[in-house]
Amino acid sequence: MADREDEGTAPHEDEPPRPPLDEDAAWAALVAGYDDEVDPGTAAAWPEAENVPVQPPDPDPTDPAAVNTAPPPADRTIVIHPVISGPRDYELVEDDEDAHFVPPEPPPLPEADVTTKFAWIAVLGGPLLLLAFVLLQIELTWWAVTVGVGGFLGGFATLVARMRTGDEDDDDDPGRGAVV
Length: 180
Prior knowledge:
The chain is mainly α. It contains five helices and no strands. Helix 3 runs antiparallel to helix 4 (about 140-160). It is flat.
């Protein structure tokens, strides 16, 4: 480790070694001098703008001469707003027809054939198989990686290949004109 100056080692050859710093004594001196006032001849350690002005002591409330009867200074103003109706005072007119909207039943999901079901099982099951092997800290063998990655890629390719293009419904459209 590097030598430190405060541990009594000299950084240069020509300087005499200093005794080690007594940290407990230094802290005790700081705590003892916490409330001491600064000598009038010394410079302040911070700018004058940051000094807090000294407040005069509060006058004795029992002394009638000490009670200030002057009005408060004019630099303060109090603005009193009149009470008016605002946007929070607005009330909605109740309409019974619109108050109870019930959405219609959603259409049933289309029936999927067996090939689509197995493709979805492969797309979701392949990564889940690999994740299970990793979480259970089982060694990934060649067959597990092949089934996981191959199942995902095969299922995804099957789902993409079986997607509807939308042209099937357009063949029966009589407004397309003559088909030759």
